[in-house]
Each structure stands twice: as C-alpha cells, then as structure tokens.
From TrEMBL:
Domain Transcriptional regulator DauR-like HTH: 146-206
Keywords: DNA-binding
Xref: Pfam families: HTH_22, PAS_6
GO molecular-function term, one example from the UniProt record: DNA binding
Name this protein carries in UniProt: Predicted transcriptional regulator YheO, contains PAS and DNA-binding HTH domains
Length: 216
C-alpha cells in the first residue's frame, strides 16, 4: 500500500471501532480504479481488497479538476438492496487525486432509534409545563421597592403621621424579612416614606438584629 494511503489506516480502524457493525470503512487507491480497494473494515457491501471503485467516484473523477468536489455525500445501494449512507473524501497532493477515504453507514438502526425518540418525545403523549422566564433587566427595581414599602405601611393599619416608634420598627422588620434592604437605595426610600432619617433606619435594623440574636 502506498505510504500516503497507509497513514489513513489508523483512522479507518478507529472509526470502525467507534461505529461497529453498522459501518464500513474503505480506502481506495484511485491510480488503479479497477482494483482500487487497498483496505477495508466492515462487511456491509461484502466487498474485498482488490475490487474496483464505485461508479459514483469514477463519475466525479471524470469531471474537470476545478469542477470536482472535495468530498461526496451520497446513498449507495448494496447487492442485496440495502441503502447505505456514504461519505467519500478525496485525497490529493500537488500531483492530483490519488485516493479516496470512504465511510459507509447502515442507517437502519439509527432510524429505529430516531423513531423511538420521536415517539417518546411526542407532544401528544407528553405534558409540557411552561414557566414564564423573567429577564432581570426588565424589572423596575425602584418601582418594586416602592410597592413593597407601601404594602408594609398599609399592613400596619396606621398612617405614617400617627405612627409611633414601635409601629415604624414593625414596618422596617417586615421589609427586612422581605429582603428589601438588599436593594440599592432602599434605606433612603424607607426613611423618606416613614419620615425619618436613614440613620434612624440603620438604628432600627440594629435593634431588630439584636432582638433576633439575644431576644428581649
């Protein structure tokens, strides 16, 4: 075997080991088309070393060099009528095309697998649960903060003008439980709504934290 072709034997062996019996890998020496097969792994076509190349390859080689494809993807019919999927890659150097590396696959088993998964994934037999995905960039953070503060004040059932320290502490505690103080600018907004300073809000948070830590 020509050394230029023998270097592809390892690829033929690896591909056949990967695909197994549903594949056939063939190396052709196209300098002698009537006995072009110099290496073959697999037995899908029942061909042997020394047999001729295919008409598909001959037809491609008969074209002008500038009109030829670097590879061909075709369907090939075997002697027993089985249809195989074929990939033929032409090998060339500065002197022109000298060989062809062919991969043939029997799609029968693959088609069975595809049909199985199509049946398995059939929407008529599957309940699909759709969830609404919210892009964080679409959320108006200031608006959400304002709404949560207003709700907390409303839940206290006391208007801000008549709130005592205890009432405002409860509002701040509710807001802390909702995680509102993780939002930027929330302390200032709460202070404005409750008509107190932001330092008072920080003091309330310290009191709430101390109460949770040590109890009353």
């Amino acid at each position: 075997m020509d050394s230029r072709l023998s270097q592809y034997v390892v690829f033929a062996d690896a591909l056949y080991e990967f695909w197994g019996d549903i594949s056939e890998i063939v190396i052709h020496d196209l300098r002698k088309p009537n006995s072009s097969i110099v290496y073959i792994k697999g037995n899908l076509t029942q061909r042997k070393i020394g047999e001729a190349t295919t008409n598909i390859i001959i037809n491609e080689l008969s074209k002008k060099p500038e009109e030829r494809s670097r590879y061909l993807i075709t369907d090939m019919k075997t002697k027993n009528g089985k249809i195989l999927r074929s990939l033929s890659i032409f090998l060339s150097d500065e002197q022109g095309v000298y060989g062809c590396f062919c991969i043939l696959i029997d799609p029968t088993y693959l088609n069975l697998v595809i049909k199985y998964f199509e049946s398995f994934l059939n929407k008529n037999n599957t309940k699909v649960i759709e969830k609404e995905i919210v892009d964080k960039s679409d959320i108006d953070i200031p608006f959400v903060t304002e709404r949560l503060i207003d709700e907390a004040i409303s839940d206290s059932q006391v208007t801000v003008e008549f709130m005592q320290k205890e009432d405002k502490l409860k509002v701040v505690s509710r807001l802390q439980n909702k995680g509102i103080f993780l939002m930027k600018g929330s302390v200032e907004r709460v202070a404005s709504k409750l008509k107190i300073s932001k330092y008072t809000v920080y003091n309330y948070l310290d009191e709430i934290k101390a109460e949770k830590t040590y109890g009353k």
